Amino acid sequence: MKHKNARAFKALIAAVFAISATVVPISQSFAAGESLGKKCTTEGVMTGTKSTSLICTESNGKLTWQRVKLASGNGRPVANLTPPKGEIEFWHYRVELADQRALVKIINDFEAKYPGTKIKQVVRDTTTYNNTARVAILANPKAALFATSRGAIFDQFAKSDMMLDLSNQRYVKQNVVAKGLTAGQYEGKQLGIPYQYLFNNPIVNTDIWAKEKWTTPKNLSGWVAWCKDAKAKGYVPLAWPGATRGQAAQISNSALMNSAASYDDLAKNLADLNSGKIDLTSSWFKGVADIYVKLRNAGCFPDNATGVTEAAAYNLFATGKSPILPIGTFAMGSIVGLNPKLDGKMELMSMILTDGKVVAEGIMNNTYTLSVNKNSSSRDQKIANAFLSYLLTGKVAEIYANETLQHVNVLDVEYKNVNLLNTVSFQAKNTMLAPRFLLLNAAVSDLTQDALIQIVGGKSPDDVLPDFSRQIKQKLQG
Amino acid sequence: MGLPAAVLFGLFYFVPFIANLRYSLTKWDRITEPEFVGVRNFVNLLTNDDLFYKVLGNNLRFTFLVVLFQTLFSLIFALFLVKNTRANIALRTLFFFPTILSSVSVGMIWLFMYDPNFGAVNLFFTRLGLENFALNWLGSEGSALYAIAFTQVWFHTGQMMVIYIAGLQQIPQELYESAEMDGASRWQQFRNVTWPMSIPTTIVVMAYTTIQSFRAFDLIFSMTQGGPNNSTNIFAVLIYQTVFSELRIGYAATQSIFFILVLVLVTVLQRRFLSSRYEK
Question: pLDDT digit string (tens) for B173-230?
C-alpha cells in the first residue's frame, strides 16, 4: 500500500512538472488573451518569436492564432558544447561592419567563457571568397569552421568532400528552425547549418503605401494595375537594379515561385534547364519571361532600368521615389543608413505574379551556411563544433540578428529591432526557398538572369530567348 | 650572371606557361581530377563559341579606341605642357592625378557619373538642353563599351602625357631653330620635326596602351562586369569568369592562349606599322 502511494506520488510530481514545463511558458505567451486556434483581428500580430509564440494569420478564410512557424524546431533547444583549448580559424565572407561588430562581440564572449580557446576570423569580400576560399580551405586544416552561400558555392564545397556531416549533433536537431536545415543538406547529409533566414522580395515603404491607400495586389493582373497607378502618381513602382545582376535576380524568385504547378515541378524544370534538357524557349520559361514583359509594359521598372545600379535602386527607395524595393530584408540596414526616417517603416509583401494557381506567397532563403572542416584535426573540429553550437543558441544568435538586422535560423531568438519585428511575421506565410539558387551552374544561372534583364531593357522574348538558349548550350558543351 | 635571371624566368614564366598549355588540353573544374580531352577545347573555342568572337571584337574595338584617343590626347597635352613653367607643372600634376587612383575607385566614380537617372553626365547634357545625349550609358549595349573606353582614356592619358613630355624634351632645340630660320610654320615644325622625332616615344606609348587596354580588367569588372549582354566583356574578364565563376579551368587556359596570341599579333602589327614610318 505504502509502495503504491509512493508511486502515485511520483506520478503526481511528474505530471505537475510536465504541466508546469509546458503550460506555464505557453500561458506566458497567452497573457494578452491570445490562444491557439482562437479568433484574432489583426493579421501579422505576434506574441513573440519563441517556440511557444503565436501569430494572427488567415486560415480557412478566418483570422486565427497560429504557431509562429519560425519557431518550429525538432526539439527543445540545448546548451552549447564545451570546446577543448586551442585555436581555429573561422573563414567567412561577412565583411559588413555590423557583422563584424556582432561577430567580434560573440567571439570575445566565447573566448572569455572558455579561456585558452581562440577563434580567429578570416574574412574576405564575397567575390574573393567565392572564388578563392574553397581551394585555400582545402589546403588549410586550421580553417576548421567556414561559411558558404546557398546554391552553386555550397554545391562546389560539398562536392569537394570537405564538410563534416553534422546530422547527429543535438544542437543541429534541436536549436535550428527545422524548415531552415534543408539548404545545408547534400546527398542526405547535413553538411552545413544555414545561419541566416532571409526574405528576399519585396520590401515596402509602409508610409507611402498607407498614404496612397493601396492594398496588396493579389495576382499578376493586380500588380500590373498597381504599377500603372503608381507610375501615374509619379512613383517608380519597383526600384529594380537592372545593372546589378545578383540583386536584379531577386525578383525572378517571385516570378519563378508560381510558374509551375508545384515546387517539385519547378525544381525539375530548373534542374532540366541546368543540365540542358530544356532551354529558355520552353513553354514554362516563356511563361516566366511573359511575366517580365507584362511588368515592363505596365511601367513597373525604372527608366533606363538596365543601367540602374544597386546603389541607385536603394536611393530610389530611400528617398521615397519608389514605394517598393524588390530586393530583400538584408537591404533594410543599408536603407536605414541612407534614410533613418524609414526605420520601422518597412515591411515585406507577397508578390504573387500569377493569375493562376498560387503555390507560394513569398520567398525566403537560408544562407551563410556554416560547416566544420572534415580535414581539420579532431581537436580543431571539436572547437569548431562547440563554437558553431554557441552561435546556434538563442541568446547568441539574438546578438547577431539585432546587430546585423538579419533574421536567423535559430530557435528562441527575440528580435528587438523594429524592422526585424515588422517583417518576421512573414514567416507565417506559405514561403518558398528561393528557387533561383536551384540553378547550380553559374553560367546557366547568369545567362538566364541576363536574358530576363534584356527583356526588361525592351527586347522581345522572341529574340532574346533563342539567343540566350544558344549561349547556354555552348557553355554546357564547352 | 644570367643564371639567376634564367631560373626566375623559368620558375615564374616558363613553368606556368607550360602548365597552362597542359591544362588547355584538359577538362577540369578544380574539384575532380583533370580529364584529358586533346584539342577539344581549341576546336570548341574556334567553332562553337559565339561569345569568344564577341569578346574578340569588343577587345579589338576597345583597344583601337583607347589607343587612338589616349595617344592623341596625351600627345596634344604634352605639346601644350612641354615647357617647364610653373603653370605647366601644375597642370601636368592635375592631368596625371587620375593615374594615382586605384582602378576600382575610378570605376566606382564613373559608375555614379554615368548613372542614367542620377548621374552627373546626363545631368550635364540635360542642363544644356541636350536631352538626346542623356543616354543609358552603361545599361545599353550600344554605348557601354564607348563609355568605359572614355573612362580608360581619362584614367591614363596623364600617364602617357608624362612619357611624351620626357620624349619631346629630348628633341634637340637646334632642329626647331633651323626650321624657324627656314620659315617653317608651327604646323610644319610639328609635321617635320616633332612627329618624326617622337615616333620612338609613340611606339612605347602605343605598345603600353595596347597592353593596358587588354588588361583593363578592374575597370570593366567594377563598372559592368562585362555586361550588358557581354557588350563590354574583354578577354581578361572572360577568362576570369570562365575560371572562377564557371570553374572551367581547361577552357580558360585555352582562352588565355588565344588572348596572348591576339595581344602579340596586335603589338607586332603596331610596331611594324610605326617602325616603317620611323625608318622613312
Answer: 999 999 999 999 999 999 999 999 999 999 999 999 999 999 899 999 999 999 899 9
Q: Do B41 and A474 make contact, defined as CB atoms within 8 angstroms?
A: no
DSSP code per residue over A120-179: EEEE--HHHHHHHHHHHHHT-TT--EEEE-TTHHHHHHHHTT-B---TT-HHHHHHB-GG
The angle at the Cα of A300, spanning A295 to A303, to the nearest 5 degrees, equals 120
Q: Does some domain include residue A273?
A: yes
pTM here? 0.84
Q: Give yes or no: residues A304 and A378 share one domain.
A: no
Put simply, the answer to whether A306 touches B248 (Cβ < 8 Å) is no
Report the gap between the CA of B224 and the closest CA in chain A (Å). Answer: 7
Chain A residue numbers touching B51 (CB-CB < 8 A): 471, 474
The per-residue pLDDT for range A246-257, each reduced to its tens digit, is 899 999 999 999
The architecture of the domain spanning B31-100+142-279 is Orthogonal Bundle (1.10)
Task: Specify which of A2-16, A168-182, A416-430 reaches the highest per-range mean pLDDT.
Answer: A168-182
Complex ipTM, two decimals? Answer: 0.85
pLDDT at A333: 84
Q: Which amino acid is at A134?
A: R
Give the domain extent around A125: 86-197+368-429
Residue A382 and residue A259 share a domain: no
Question: Residue A312 and residue B224: Cβ atoms within 8 Å?
Answer: no
Q: Is residue B273 pLDDT above 90, yes or no?
A: no
Distance from CA of B223 to the nearest CA of A (A): 9
A303 plus A451 within the same structural domain: yes
Amino acid in position A276:
G
CATH of the domain at A132: 3.40.190.10
Place of cell 564547352: A478
Same domain for A450 and A411: no
Contacts of residue A346, defined as CB under 8 A and 6 or more positions apart, other chains included, come to: A203, A204, A205, A206, A332, A335, A419, A422, A423
A306 inside 8 A of chain B by CB: yes
In the predicted model, what is the mean pLDDT of residues B232-251? 93
A298 and A224 in a single domain? The answer is: yes
**CA dist., res. A335 & res. A344, Å (int):** 11
The residue of chain B nearest to residue A448, with distances taken between CA atoms, is B229
Residue A55 lies in a domain: no
3-class SS shares of chain A: helix, strand, coil, % to 5: 50, 15, 35
- A342 and A399 share a domain? no
Helix (H, G, I), strand (E, B) or coil at A9: helix
CA of A87 to nearest chain B CA: how many angstroms apart? 28
Mark whether A256 and A228 lie in a shared domain.
Answer: yes
